[in-house]
């Protein structure tokens, strides 16, 4: 997680500050996590997946590409997950649609 935040930090414009929304997974809330100075972590309330659009992304991938399978090995699981992720990355419009919340937009 620290490496991920460091990469995000590099993409932030000089003088800007980023807010990163995170669920309350242990690796997101540990005191050991080093958060760059140009990032503030905003924890989402516990047990509120509707506030975390990435939960819908994972559900979409499970529903469409990863469910009802028998995996033969760990590497087979990783291969299928990578294949599903790459299919989704090739469809940015779908990612935007899945992550959009109608109730979060003003009229």
UniProtKB/TrEMBL annotation:
Gene Ontology molecular function terms on file: nucleic acid binding
Domain of life: Bacteria
InterPro entries documented for this protein: RNaseH_sf, Tc1-like_DDE_dom
Span of domain Tc1-like transposase DDE: 16-76
Name of protein: Tc1-like transposase DDE domain-containing protein
